[in-house]
Amino acid sequence: MAGYEKLLDLMMLSREDQARFGEALKYLGEDLRRMEAKLDYTNGSVRTLRSEMDGVHHDLGIIKKSKTTINNPTNVTVKNGFFKRDWKEIFYVLAILASTLGYLIVQTLIYIQENLG
Questions:
Q1: CB of 40 within 8 A of CB of 48?
Q2: With contact defined as beta carbons under 8 Å apart, do 50 and 59 qualify?
Q3: CB under 8 Å to 108, separation ≥6 — which residues?
Q4: DSSP E strand boundaries for the chain
Q5: For 13-55, how does the pLDDT look when each residue is reduced to its tens digit (9 = 90+)?
Q6: For a disulfide at 13, which of 17, 43, 67, 79, Cβ 3.0-4.6 Å?
Q7: Rounded distance, CA 76 to CA 45, Å?
C-alpha cells in the first residue's frame, strides 16, 4: 500500500513538478541504457563497466572470470555445477525496467489529471 500512497502524493504535485519528475526518470533510463551499452562481454563475463554521469568516471568494478566458463550467447557461467547469471547485468536490466515503468506511471497520471480531472 505504500506505493499506492506515494502515487497519491505524486498526483498532488503540480503539473510542472510531475513533468520534471517524468523528465528525470526519462534521463535516468537513458543513462542506464548508456551504461548497459558499455558492458563488454568476453567469454561470458563482464570485464569492465564505466559510466559517465555528471562528467565523472565511476569505475563500477571488474568481474573476474570463474575457473570454468562456457561460450554461449546467454553469458551463463558454470561454477560448482550451478548456472549463475552475472548479477550486475540483471541489476541494470531491472533498473532500466523500473525507470521505464516509473516514467510511464508519471505520464499516465499527467494524462489522467489533464483529461479526466
A1: yes
A2: yes
A3: none
A4: 41-42, 45-46, 48-53, 56-62, 77-79, 82-84
A5: 677 777 777 777 777 777 777 766 655 444 444 444 444 443 3
A6: 17
A7: 8
